[in-house]
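User: If only I could read backbone structure tokens as easily as an amino acid sequence. Underneath my words sits a plain record pairing an amino acid chain with its backbone structure tokens. This is the protein in question:
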Amino acid sequence: MKRKLLFSLAIFAATVMVMLACSNQKGATDGVNQFVIKRGTNLSHWLSQSEVRGEMRRLHIQEDDFARLEELGFDFVRIPIDEVQFWDEQGNQLPEAWKLLTNALDLARKHNLRAIVDLHIIRSHYFNASLEGKGDENTLFSSEKAQQDLINMWYQLSDSLKNYSNDWVAYEFMNEPVADEHEQWNQLVAKVHKALREREPNRTLVIGSNLWQGYETMKYLRVPEGDKNIILSFHYYNPMLLTHYGAWWTPIGKYTGKINYPGIMITKEDYDAAPDSVKTLLEPYLTQKWDINKIKADFRDAIAVAKKYDLQLICGEWGVYENVDRELAYKWTKDMLDVFDEFNIAWCSWCYDADFGFWDQQRHCYKDKTLVELLMSGKGL
């Protein structure tokens, strides 16, 4: 009797193994990953846009951060990284940043968070260079060497990250391209896509369009044909007068008058009282009505391109500066979330704990509980 039982168990186990093998084979055959995402946030100003090094950098993002995001209901994170943190000027790897990245990916997986590794700023391309009068430092689109350097960086990243599951880790090979011509970016997309596909045929790649990953330019993006493991990405901070109100680093942030949302954002009286240096920037807000319908209209091209290629669409950055009037911020945030839900657009807020974020790392508390509750559709803390 015992032998019959053992034989039956063996047959059952073998059957299960065959079924699993067939299932895995099917997944490998169709080649489509399960990198499906909905609600995420950017772990910004850590391995990117920060000069902090050493212990402070090591302690900035810890396991409790990933546990918190999982508990809140996020399902993925975007991790911006900069060349200067991962390679010195001679191209040598800087080991600590690499360890921090792989540790973050391990913790993300432990806490059921998918992760997008985003090469945010490289030495040959910084998305705000032209706005800061440093446009001549952006050599990426005019230099074959700079383009090969970008590919070489991804070769090294791939060597380090290739063993992570395609279902859990994706690559965004450059953030917010700013090329003079859309075709320059399209050609670079094709070049980097080909190079990565030779190394990792099925890795999910996140690709945005030219000019700051703008929704306006998505229609000009030439998407590699026949590749279903691509996510299309756009960024959205409109209306800038609202989302960047009081932001010291942008000219429009110098306006300190009253603003309104939804509706016409400023009155003629407030416009007349504004500094002359910002009046040109303010003119569109005198006539344009900003509301949920304007947001839908802006998203139209991005939605159409994703539908054309049958690809997942993500708004990879969006958010409101912390100095913005909270009631206005919440109204805009709710409209954004409603549009995301209506058109099945995944989103990744900018950001977790910096100026646009909801978490205060130093005080270890929420900066804005109402915002995070709104983001998670009223989920309690």
